[in-house]
Each structure stands twice: as structure tokens, then as C-alpha cells.
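Session log. Operator J.P. requested a structure for one protein chain; no other inputs attached. Running the standard single-chain path with C-alpha cell output.
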Amino acid sequence: MFLKVFLFIFAQTVCQSLALLRNDRNIVLFKHIYLRSLTLETIEQKIDHFNESDHRTFRSGYYTNMHLFKPGGPIILNIGGEGAISPREVESTAARGYELLADTNPAYYVFEHRYYGESKPFENPTVDDLKYLSSKLALADVAHMIRTIKGSGEFNNSKVIVVGGSYAGNLAAWMKVLYPDLVDAAYASSGPVLAKKNFFEYFEVVTETIKTYGSQDCVHEISAKFNRTQELLQSPEGIKEIKAEHSICPETDMTVPENQQLLFLLLIQKFAVDVQYGDPEIIKDLCQEPILSLPLWYDEDDETNCRDLNYNTRIHKIYEDYSSSWLWLYQTCTEFGYFQTTTSNNQMFGKSTIPLEFYLKTCKVIFGDEFDEQRIDQGVSNTNTMYGGLTPNVENTVFVNGDMDPWHKLGVLHELAPAAPAVYIMGSSHCHDITADPDDDGNVKEARVKIENYLKKWIGA
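Structure written below.
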């Protein structure tokens, strides 16, 4: 049950999965066009593009859809993020691509990120093998993919548009930083382009969103729930009460700080998920629920009779070797940080109930003592230096964010240049713009028109 909890806190979650939650009707609408045309293929990639003496290779996966393509039409390359791509995800995303740029006769590609899914440089990687898991090498994979596609005679006159959401939104923008001559236009949805170790702003936005689209009273109720829990955890009698309320295993020592932090992670999930992936109506509905009696966020398939919140026994089960969560944790510990803490006074989830130290310890426990805070700081600094943080040097790139999405705090919210605009959507959440839903409100629909106009202008369509 803890895999989902930890994966959400440490990661953004790939936007294709979000599309599956929103797009069932739209998938049906477009499946007769797309599903029959999807083809899974692979391309050979170097494990290390930047070491000429290293000739090792692996196969990375991608899907193609050529149903609408006509000579001269653009190549739309959707970059995968921190998870596997699948036919259904491609089908959902393809529906969005069809709606957005159908009249440009595009060739549609969805490219899987190295190490995730079937795109494995190593079948059973060690921690040392993970040194080839980086955004820079992932971008080099995309560049090789584009060169290979463009090498085909039928794409001689095709412009290239890269699209990505969440972490993959970063990659779309960063392709214009590192490979501007290969990419004609980039669409970066909900991309947290600023690497940051202590991402305390995340829960500030969760709080502000519930206040804005719910009510101040709702915020007070949630704050009271967490303050009460934090107070009860200070005494043996209170711990006994908390264990009974949340079915925590009797042998779990809830005086251990990390065990308490696991509890708070579980308690926070309902609110964080509803904000990051919700809409104003979901927030209103949340605030109609009895806040103080909301259950823990947990996997309904859990067959145990009690919840084991023992950090030392659970942490390795959460981050099982070779899982997407293990891989993404490595990237956060070495490149991005993104550690969501409750260290700010402007959030409603208690005082430092999830401290930065929790994440710093987890990096060391999972990957080794050398993955310490100094290494995290250096990785964050290197990332921002390489890509430019909140001011990447790009053109023909549109940055899109929603006010409800906590990740917008690390994104580009204002125009960087006439050819690097920002679209900020009120009442919109994580990657909402990149999914297709006929019931979206006017703000989202208006934003999509702007995005489409930018992309068409930049490719001369």
C-alpha cells in the first residue's frame, strides 16, 4: 500500500496516467482512428552518448501513429517521463494530439524514457548502473531519435514539435536548450524546470487552493485534524488512540520520528491528490466531507489487518529495485530534489510533520551513504546551471501551468521572450491542458487555442 503513497510524494507522476483518469470518453471518441494505427518499435541507443570509447547499447521503445501523416506534415514527439509508456496511454495522448493539430497532418510518436518500462540499459541494474539515468542522457536519446526519424526521406520537410507534461515537460523545454537546431517548437506542460531541494511551496499551494476553491473554514478543519494528530503523538495515551483510529500495527513504535512521518504522509494524500489532479468542483466536494473523520489514503487491495508504519522495514519494500519509484527517487536524489516538506508556516498540515531530513535519510538508506545532502545540493545546482532554472534560454517554446497545480511554483509563469510565452490557467491542475476533455471549462479551452496558435506559427502551418 505504501508504494502509491511514496511515489506520489517523491514524484510528480507521469501525465499520461492522469490522462487515463480524465479521458475515457475521449478515448472512445478517437480510438477508431488511433488504436488501429499504433505500432510498438524500438531504436538502438548508446548507454553513454558522451563517452566515445563506450560502445554499449540498449533498445528504447516508442510508439508511432502515421494515420494522419502526409508529406510535409510535422513530427509530433511526445516525450515519456518517469514511467513506462503503454498502448492505452498512447491512445489517450494521441486523442489530445489529434484534437490539437489534426489539420497539420502530423506523424505522431511517443518515446519512452531510458530505464523506465521496456527501455532498459540493464536488466537488473545496480546503484552504480544508475549513473546513466539522467535527464541529460535522456535528452541525448531524444536527439538521436529525432535525427533517425529525420534521416528518413519522407520527413525531409517535416518540422519537429516536442511535447511533454510534468517532468517530461521539463525535457520538452530542455530539448530547446541543448538541441535547438533539432526542434522547431516545444510544448512544456506543468514542467517544474527549477530544481529545488526543499520544495516547501508544494503544500503551501495545496493549502491556498483549498482555501480558494473550498473555504477558509475547510482549511481550519484540516489544520485542526493535523494539529490534533501531532499533539496525540506526544504521549503514550495519545499514541494508543492514534493507533486505534488508523489500525496501526501494535508492534509499530510510533515514538520513532520516521514512523510518525509515514503516518503524516498517508494523512496528507487525500488532500494533495485532490488538488494536484482535481478541479474546483472536486475541492468543493472535498470540503463537504467530514474532514476530521476522513480515512487514511491506502490501497484497497491491502490484505493485512493492520498498517505497518515501521520506516526501517517498509522503506525497501516501497523502493523495490528496478521499480519506477526506485528509479525516480534516484533522479530526485541526484538531479532535482523536489522534496515536499511541511516546513513552511503557510500550510495546514502541522509543524514540520514531514521535514527535509526525512528525504535526506531516505536517499542514503536506499542508495548508500555517499548520497548525502552535499551530493543532493550539487546535483540541484548542476541541473539549474545546465538548463537555466526559471529562465531557460529558449525560443519557440510555450510553458503551460495551472494555478491549482502545486508544481507551478517551480515552473515558468511569465513570458521569457516573445517566442517563449507562458500560459497560466485559472482553475486548472497538473497537466490538465495536455489531456482532452470535451467538458473542460472556458479557461482551459481558451488556453488550448493559444497553445495551438503558437505551435502552428512556429512551424509555419
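Operator note: The first strand starts at residue 39 and ends at 46.
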